[in-house]
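Practice problem 4.
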């Protein structure tokens, strides 16, 4: 398959990442069907597209015809068969639970046309952990976007030992068609590049807060003002989800067995209280 053969993209999951990946695809001219087990999430995703896209016209960033075309390209359905049945390329952005992802990949293998590439947007799960749930491991890879996906330019593509060269190339080519910069990793590594680097920053920030060396606000102030990051680590964890930071930490700890990889007491406290950040209206900061 070549990137030119991709006409229909299916995005699984209408959450933090999925709803914006779907809009990216529609803006790039692809028919995109977005699916989720929650009708509420689908309604929110559709409402986002219907608000965000016209706002881009009002801001002078897009033309009305581009928005009309993108909206016509987008569809939202709870029905997985309907969403994925004619897909040439699937981007799975469901919850970060391996059991759910394996079941989804097995279902997608059954539902999608045999030529379809099945990519996971997981933030840390390498695709070899889901590829063997399908009969087409050569067509399975990681395609990892960053939050907010409509803004952040990078996509990490990871070619596992099971992934064919063709699949990796088509995924890199699709990344470019979506207007993103791709980095191709030819070796699977937990957390890929960016989340490993970010994880190191977050662990140190959490350690300093846990030790009472500085408050979370002071650490954010230090990182934004001294390093020029647009958000400090605590504001960013609120934005991307404290639950996600916790799952990433737990997965890493389970992989390495290294006690220093264990999620920090402050992170565990926030996770246990359900203070997941922006989506829960409370995390390290409060949100209205
Ligand atoms: N969705 C879509 N677009 C958004 C947005 C959102 N949630 N938030 C901001 N934008 C857009 C705005 O429309 C605006 O676009 P234009 O300039 O083209 O008009 C632009 O971003 C700037 O917006 P603002 O001026 O309102 O806000 P800002 O300058 O404070 O930027 C931000 C907001 C882009 C989120 C910026 O704070 C930022 O880059 N933060 C860091 C984000 C980051 O590090 N992401 C990676 C996280 S790690 C990750 O994602 C890994 C993972 O696996 C989950």
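Answer key:
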């Amino acid at each position: 398959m070549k990137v030119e053969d991709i006409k229909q993209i299916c995005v699984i999951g209408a959450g933090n990442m999925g709803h914006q990946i779907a809009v990216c695809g529609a803006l790039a001219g692809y028919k995109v069907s977005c699916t989720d087990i929650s009708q509420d999430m689908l309604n929110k995703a559709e409402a986002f597209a219907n608000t965000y896209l016209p706002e881009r016209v009002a801001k002078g960033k897009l033309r009305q015809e581009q928005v009309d075309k993108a909206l016509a390209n987008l569809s939202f359905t709870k029905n997985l068969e309907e969403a994925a049945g004619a897909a040439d390329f699937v981007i799975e952005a469901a919850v970060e639970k391996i059991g759910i992802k394996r079941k989804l990949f097995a279902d997608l293998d059954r539902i999608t046309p045999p030529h379809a590439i099945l990519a996971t947007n997981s933030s840390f799960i390498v695709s070899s952990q889901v590829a063997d749930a399908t009969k087409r491991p050569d067509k399975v890879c990681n395609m990892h976007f960053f939050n907010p996906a409509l803004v952040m330019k990078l996509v990490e593509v990871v070619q596992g030992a099971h992934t064919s060269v063709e699949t990796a190339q088509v995924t890199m080519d699709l990344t470019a068609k979506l207007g993103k910069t791709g980095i191709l990793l030819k070796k699977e590594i937990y957390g890929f590049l960016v989340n490993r680097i970010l994880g190191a920053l977050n662990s140190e920030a959490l350690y300093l807060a846990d030790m009472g060396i500085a408050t979370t606000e002071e650490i954010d102030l230090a990182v934004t003002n001294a390093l020029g990051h647009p958000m400090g680590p605590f504001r960013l964890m609120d934005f991307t989800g404290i639950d996600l930071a916790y799952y990433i930490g737990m997965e890493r700890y389970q992989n390495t067995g290294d006690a220093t990889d264990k999620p920090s007491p402050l992170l565990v406290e926030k996770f246990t209280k359900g203070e997941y950040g922006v989506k829960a209206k409370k995390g390290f900061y409060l949100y209205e």
